[in-house]
Structure formats: structure tokens, C-alpha cells
Amino acid sequence: MTRTRPMYVASLTEGEAEAGYLILRDGTTALIRVAQLSDQWALQVFVNGLSPESKRHRFFSETNPSPELIASLCENSDPRSLLTLLVTRAWKDEQHIIAVGSYFAKEENTAEIAIAVDDTFHGKGLGTLLLERLALLAIRHGFVHLWAVTHADNLAMREVFKESGFDVHEALENGDMEMDMLLVPTETTVTRSEIRERIATTASLRPFFRPRSVAVIGASRDPSKIGAKLLGALIANNFKGTIYPINRHASHLRGLRVYPSMRDLPHPVDMAIIAVPCDAVLGVVDECANRNVRALIIITAGFAEVNPKGRALQERLVQQVREHGMRMVGPNCFGLVNADPVVCLNATFSTHFPPFGRVAISSQSGALGLAILAAARRLHFGISTFVSVGNKADVSVNDLLQYWEEDPSTEVILLYVESFGNPRRFARIARRVSRGKPIIAIKSGRSPSGSRAAGSHTAALAQRDVVVDALFHQAGVMRAETLEELFALATGLSSQPLPPGRRIAIVTNSGGPAILCADACEAGALVVPALSEQTTTRLASILPSAAALKNPVDLIASATPQQYHQAIHTLLVADEVDALIVLYTSVTMSDNSAIAEGILTGITAGRTAGAKGKPVLACWMAEGDHDRSLMTNHETVPTYRFPETPANVLSKAASYVEWRAQPIGMVADFDDLNLPLAREICEKAVARRGSGWLTTEEIRALLAAMHLPILPGGVAPTADEAVGDGRMHRISCRRKTGLTSSRPQNGDRRRSPESPYCWRGSRSLRGDPRTSGA
Ligand code: COA
């Protein structure tokens, strides 16, 4: 039997829910983890410091809770009985608890929940985030309901329950509000959780893209050094905020006052760009934390990409950044750009500043990023923002996708990827973002040597290419095979509408390129349809008798600007055409500009006549005139050098449009999977032989445990035995592997501990003194 559940289920894996970091509604971060016995003192300090009202809401009393109660909250050896999560934030070099949430087993399927948040952190979404984590862990440990009792006037807590998106039932009992929440994820819970994540992530990244002030730490006196170039790029590209160079040995650089350290700055700073040697980075980050800097770009190399020592240093860096509620791009990165004229932020060490436009780019390679920025102007596509993510130790592509999903300046997203930190999260986020904005990705490291190189470049871990293909396919991501294709898709999709269908008209002045183009269309599952009688008649009335009026429409070598104009206009408005490819091969160089004009006026006429939603792509083959741009007052027509390229772009765009039109779908959720048996099979195999492939018998047993239909049979060591009694053999195989099948009986609702719908027995803790108000 199957159920369905929403496609987008929050994907915290085992371990991530118990420990990690949270992004608060204001974009700052905090650490979360399970409480330990050693936390008793800090927890007591935290609860004692709560305001009387917060204490009353949490403990139903304004007096400080007893040390025994605090000790019991820190005893987390049996999550079926009790679990407490702590949220911490560092200040003055110490971790402080800023929120605590616990659940306690109340009945077999019900856990009681209680949460308290530091009064200064109210309103930042911490209660909801804690509830979400506790709910997830409660589900994992077999609970189906969360229950809480709170004062009826505790509207904030009641709101937290309602905001979760779970089904909540409230009942007023003896003046207090009892709330019961059914822990079955629904489309609403998932959607709300995603929205919360997106809002918080976007807020956390805003200081990177729209900082009011930037400090450059390591702004060198030597103009050839990276720190000096970073400062130079900010100044040269007219950053609209304030710039603070930091250098211990200089008083002025490039006309700006220099400060010896972050401690000496007169005003707060939103973002710091760090280019000091790697052994000085932690100290500098500490100074930034003390000045409440929100965003760090760490250019410095020498971390996880070099050796285990560097990896350990990077781990300490990430820990430090998260403890202090900051966010970090890098380390080992090239920086970040926001080309919006109201910001003009070039936080890289190159002065290439791209034209402002609709394409956002994330690159795991700094040098490649530099090449993309340089190419943008030449290839006539504008960039909204660019981020070189480097080792992506904190800010990841997944975070950036969420930012760009919300960013009104971004319409197309380009990714250069060497590895995925969290492919499951990428799949979930990219699938959602792709529904609104096309994502074009190039993934390197396909070959063994390429993947080895990626490992030492940005500490990327190898991923199998077939898996990457499947991941992109599922998430609606267009995969570019080469950089050239990446640029071709970016130019095409950022400047023209998506094709409403696969029917392509081709207009040309030479037969050969048109044939190549038509072949490429068909190879890409596009259709080059015969034209309707109405279109053919119209073309015949305006073109010379030697012109070919079938699709491709060949205007022959003597084509005039006027003939291009009329043919384009006619084809664009034809009902049987979804997109147009214009090919031009120069015969006499002197004609080029006039032909370009004819093409553009033809497009404008077609648009004016109503063909607004049909893309037009061009191939311009004119020796010495390669980089011609075709631009009307309203649009840029992507211009490629070879006739196959526009066909390939339209083919990928059409597939993307079809993917986007598919219903979002539901994931089937089977309730007859025997997960304990599947786990047992794998564990036994690993215990016996270490990691590697399962044997045929084990695979058969595994498939049977998942109730996937398999043909009856088994493994015979010899041909004679194969024709002998297969049944007997199967039995002996099963004895040898020690595996038995234990399909649950009908109506048996027990599930494995991993299942979100686990129904195991539980001890009732009704009457336990620990269960008190929320
Ligand atoms: N606070 C403030 N300034 C400091 C400092 C600190 N704690 N420590 C050093 N500085 C200053 C230095 O005084 C120097 O300024 P000066 O030249 O005026 O004396 C400046 O910072 C740079 O320090 P320096 O020791 O000269 O380093 P460097 O410029 O040779 O190298 C990096 C620094 C970051 C560029 C280098 O460590 C590095 O990582 N390079 C590779 C970067 C890279 O490739 N990134 C990936 C790109 S895709």
C-alpha cells in the first residue's frame, strides 16, 4: 500500500537535527545541540536570567527552577523518554545559552514539549526553529503527537505552534491552553518550513550583497598584493558605501584613511574582506565578531584544499564564524560582485566589472569566475551578482540559490560546480527554484583525473557523473557540457523569452548553414515544420522567385535587408512557429550593418504584430565581424558563430519548459518496507567484508525486504545445480546468509525507527515532575 507525501520534505539527515546551526529570522546564526550533563550550570544560569514573565510561561512559576529539574533536562541518554536541545551564541569569547527546548514522553505516542527563549532574542524565530527540530526528533523517536500546556495569554507560544503548519488542536482547560499537534508532515508544514528557511537565508546573505560599509583587512601597501587589489577594485568601481582599509603599518592608502585594526574603526561595518596570511585569519575573524560584522569574505587560501592541518583550521574557522552568528564566503575564494548601479560592489581582486543584467553566477573556481566576468561584456550578457564560493565552508550554492530565488534582479542562474556539499538539499532547493528561474550548471570533475584535480583545487569530493546527471535532471537544471555551451545558454536565456513549443522556423541566406541548423534542431528533438499555406503565400509575395519558401526559408545569397525584414516578420507571426533562428553568412562585408538593421526591424515588426513570446536567436557568420551585437531598443538577440548553437540552446530551453510544465508530483511513501531487515542485511555484509558490493543473494534478500517484485530463483554454483532443485538451493542460500524475510502482517503499523511514522511502544511519563508548561 502506498501513501503520498509532499515532494519537498525538510531534509535534515540523522545527526544534522541534533547538532548544527540555525539561521535566525534576522539572518544571524546560532549553534544548536543536544544538552549534556556538563551543561547544568550554564542552563541554570540561563533559566535564572529569564524575565519573570518568561519563567512563568516556561515553568508556571516566577521562582528559579530547582537544580534537580535542570539536571534532569541535561540527562539525554534515552530520547524515547526525554530530549533537550540547547541553542547557543558566543560573545566575549564564551558560549551562552540563548534558548532551550525539551520534549518529555507523556504517553505512548505523545510527547510534551516546553520551550524558553532568552528575552533579548524574542521575535527572531527561535521558538519556531526549536519546535521544528524537536518535532523532527520526536517523530524519529516514535512520537506522533506533541502536546503542550501554556497560559492562555502566552500568545507568542500559541503562535509558534500554529505557525509550524502542523495540525494543531487547542482546548481551554482550567484557564490554561492545552495544545495538541499531530506530527504528520503535510504540504503546509513543508511549505512553511521552506519559506522560513528561505527568508532567514536571504536575510543572512543580504549584508554580502548590499553592505553599507566594507572593511578590507590586509589592504597592503604593496600594489601588487591581493589585499591592495581588493581595495583598488572597490574604489575603481565606485562602491556606493563606505570603505575602511585595515593595515597596521599605513595611515593612508589610495586617498582613504587606514585603521590599524577592526577595534579602531569609528563605525560599525557590515562586511569584511579578509586577505591576511592564513595563520592570522582566526584572530582577524575574532576581531570582526567583536565588532558585530555580519558577513565575511575570506580570500586567503591554505585551508581544507591543502592538507588535513588546513582542514582542521577550516573547521575551527567555521565553528568560530557560526558561534558568533556571522556568515562567511570562502575561504580560498576570489570574492563577490553586485553589479547593481545602486551598489556597485566589486569585492574581488580583479577590476573587471561586468555590465548589470539578469544573470547570477556562482563559481567554485575563482579563475573561471574571472573569465566569466571578463566574457560577460564581450558576449553581451549582463550580470546581477557573482559569487566565488571557494571551499564553500559556510555559504553554499544552496544558500545562494535561495537568495537568487528572491532577488528581483536575477532571472537566470549559472553554476560552475566541482562538488555538492549536500546533494539532497540541492535537489530540493534547485527543484523549487527551477520552477521560476532557469538554472544552468556546468559540473567538472567527470573524469578520474578531473575529479582528482577538483580535490586539490577546492577540497571537492568526487561524485559519480551519472548521479550528477540524474540529480540535475530531477531538479530541472540544464546541464552545459562545455563552458562554450554554458555561455551560449546564458546569453540565450537571459535575453529572450522561453520557447512556447518545439516548432522552429529557420531563415537564412545560404543553404549549407541552414541544413546544419535543421539537422541540429532534429537531433535536439525540435521540429522544423512545413509552413502553412498562408505563410508560404505571404512569403512568395515578398521574396524573389529563386528563394526557397519551405522551412528553412532560404533568401539566397543576394538577400537584401528588406527581404530579411519581411521574412522575419512573416515567420514570427506564423501560428505554426514557436521560435525563430536567423542565419546570416556574409557575402560582401559592406552589407553587414544594413542586414543587421533589416533583421532587427523585422523582429521589431513581428513583436509589434503580437509575437512577443517567441524567442529569436541568430547565427552571424561574417569573417572579421564575429562579435556583432544585435540589439533593438527593447531586446538583445543572442548572436552565435555557428548554426548548430542556436538549435542546441532552443532544444535545452524547450526541454526545460516541458519540465517546468509538469505537475510538481508527490513522492510515494510505502508502508510495507521492512527497513530493519534491509538494515540487517547491509550491516551483516559490511561486518563480514567491509564496504563493497552486496552479493546476488544479499541483493535478492534486500529487494524482497523492500517488497520489490523479483522473479523466483536463486544462485547455483554449477550448471547442474541450476537445472536441479532451485527451491532447495534457495533455502540453503538463505540459511547460509542467515537472513529471513519478515514481512509485516496486514494491519501491523510498526515501522522502523527511521520512519517518520514510527509506532513503537513507549513508557508513559504522566505525572513526571519534569513535565511543565510551555
Ligand atoms: N591585521 C591587519 N593586517 C594584517 C594582518 C592582521 N592580522 N596580518 C597581516 N596584515 C597585513 C600585512 O601587513 C600586509 O600589508 P603590507 O603589505 O602593507 O605590510 C597585508 O596584510 C598582507 O599580508 P602579507 O603577509 O603580505 O600577505 P600576502 O599579501 O603575501 O598574502 C594572502 C596574503 C591572503 C593573499 C595569501 O595568504 C593567500 O592566501 N593567497 C592566495 C589567495 C587565493 O589564491 N585565493 C583564492 C583565489 S581564487
Structural class: alpha/beta
Our Rg estimate from Cα atoms comes to 31 Å
Instruction: Quote the beta fraction.
Output: 15-25%
Helical run tally = 24
Uncertain stretches of 5 or more adjacent residues: 1-11, 729-774
Describe the biggest sheet? 8 strands, mixed
Helix content: 25-40%
Number of strands: 31
Sheet with most strands: strand arrangement: 2-3-4-5-6-7-9-8
Care to describe what's here?
It is a single chain. The strands form seven sheets. Strands 2-3-4-5-6-7-9-8 form an eight-stranded mixed β-sheet, sandwiched between helices. Strands 18-17-20-19-21-22-23 form a seven-stranded mixed β-sheet, sandwiched between helices. It is α/β, with parallel strands linked by helices and 774 residues long. The protein is globular, with a radius of gyration of 31 Å. The chain contains 24 helices and 31 strands. The two termini are 38 Å apart. Residues 1-11 and 729-774 have low confidence and may be disordered. Bound molecules: coenzyme A. Coenzyme A (COA) is lined by residues 217-218, 220-222, 225-227, 246-250, 275-278, 280, 283-284, 299-302, 332-334, 366, 388.
